[in-house]
Specification:
Layout (H helix, E strand, L loop, with lengths): L2 H5 L3 H21 L4 E5 H4 L9 E8 L8 H8 L6 E3 L5 E6 L2 E9 L14 H11 L3 H12 L15 H11 L2 H8 L6 E4 L7 H7 L8 E5 L2 E5 L6 H16 L13 H7 L3 E9 L5 H22 L3 E8 L3 E8 L6 E8 L3 H10 L6 E2 L3 E7 L5 H8 L3 H4 L4 E3 L1
Parallel strand pairs: 2-5, 6-7
Antiparallel strand pairs: 1-2, 3-4, 4-5, 7-8, 9-11, 9-15, 10-11, 12-14, 13-14
């Protein structure tokens, strides 16, 4: 498969990455002599994709530090190194070095999940488990590229897809990419995978998990039995993935592994009989997870308003690569010049009288059950309707700038 040459880092890239990381670790070790340092994430498990140079470094403070603010301690020890503080369950640091992004995460050094003081403390155990159990890192890379190129990769709140750790566990379970895709194409409404066989049956699984963490894919964390590692996966992404696997099996092609850039001409060709609204968005500054959440709210705000006003949406998506684009494909339809605004049921006399008083300058109509008035619609075309929407105060608080 030619795609392997694109996603597998070659020796030259590996050597360069290793040198950059080693040089950075030397700087850190001089300041953190009492701590062990562990490379985590995809880089630490050797499941990273070529060109992806994000590096997680876990700073493992001794257990004797459990009463100390290790996040503040880390910041004090790294004074002189330019970093940003990112807020999470425990604050961590971000350092940019050319095309490399280092995230430095303080944890307490633990041997089993029960000893964790913070959810982050368990993460190094995830790294150890994957490194001990993975048979073929290439299979993980194929799965990650497959998901990433189809906007299904990432557990962030604005994506709600498959995290890197979840992908790694799924490949450990299914052993190969093709076996993973074959099985996933047949997934039903709820799939339960328990790699460490903590539980005897489905009932026991459901009784031991937080009800808020139960969804379509229950992947029991092999180092933390009371955790669903796939809890952030949404119903929509779960179903999109099943459908994607079916399409791939019918026509296996390397295009499934290549990220697609937004192509307006292609979109117009595909939906030539529909109205297409395309918005170019500039994001606010901030942490990707927070900014992405705001972008998702902005996208959903417009979509919801379009549907509520009366247009049917055929397809709507948003892309966040080198630039951010929202697009909405709707039926080619001009709405009526009047819109019906319903009041209370006729039998509620007092409410009806209040409605009539409020709309005293309008003719009151009634149908079999309710009273209503007819109002002049401001926008009958979707283009002018959306143009008004993007000037809404709520929308403007979610993005930096938008252009239609």
């Amino acid at each position: 498969m030619d795609i392997l040459n694109k996603i597998n880092p070659d020796k030259k890239e590996r050597d360069k990455v290793s040198k950059v990381i080693d040089d950075f670790l030397i700087k850190l070790r001089k300041r953190l002599k009492e701590c062990d340092l562990l490379i985590g994430g995809s880089m630490g498990k050797d499941s990273w994709l070529s060109g992806d140079h994000d590096v997680d470094i876990f700073v493992k403070f001794p257990k004797s530090y459990y009463k100390k603010d290790i996040s503040r301690l880390l910041q004090d020890k790294l004074k002189g190194i330019k970093f940003n503080v990112l807020h999470g369950s425990r604050d961590y640091l971000q350092v940019r070095h050319g095309s490399y992004l280092f995230e430095i995460i303080p944890v307490i050094d633990i041997k089993k999940h029960e000893e964790a003081l913070n959810i982050t403390d368990v993460s190094p155990l995830h790294v150890d488990y994957v490194k001990k159990n993975i048979r073929d890192n290439v299979q993980i890379r194929l799965a990650k590229a497959f998901l990433k190129s189809n906007n299904l990769y990432g557990a962030e709140s604005y994506i709600k897809g498959f995290s890197g750790y979840v992908v790694e566990l799924l490949i450990i379970h299914y052993k190969t990419f093709m076996n993973f895709v074959n099985n996933a194409s047949k997934w039903n409404n709820q799939v339960i995978i328990d790699l460490s066989k903590f539980y005897k049956n489905k009932k026991e699984v459901l009784n031991n998990l937080d009800k808020n963490k139960i969804n379509n894919l229950i992947l029991i964390d092999p180092v933390q039995p009371n955790r669903n590692a796939a809890a952030s996966l949404s119903f929509e992404k779960f179903n999109e993935f099943i459908e994607l696997c079916g399409k791939y099996l019918k026509n296996p092609h390397e295009e499934f592994f290549i990220e697609k850039k937004f192509d307006l001409d292609e979109l117009k060709k595909k939906f030539s009989k529909y109205d297409i609204i395309v918005l170019n968005v500039d994001k606010l500054e901030g942490k990707d997870d927070v900014v992405g959440g705001k972008l998702l709210k902005a996208f959903d705000f417009i979509k919801g308003k379009i549907i509520k006003e009366g247009w049917k949406i055929k397809e709507s998506k948003w892309h966040w690569n080198d630039k951010i684009i929202f697009y909405y494909v709707s039926e080619k339809k001009e709405l009526s010049k009047e819109v019906i605004h319903y009041g209370p049921p006729k039998k509620l006399i007092e409410n009806v009288n209040m409605f009539k008083k409020k709309w005293k300058n309008y003719k009151i109509f009634e149908d079999n059950s309710r009273v209503y008035v007819k109002l002049k619609r401001k926008n009958t075309k979707i283009s002018s309707f959306v143009k008004d929407l993007i000037n809404d105060k709520y929308f403007k608080n979610l993005v930096e700038k938008i252009k239609g």
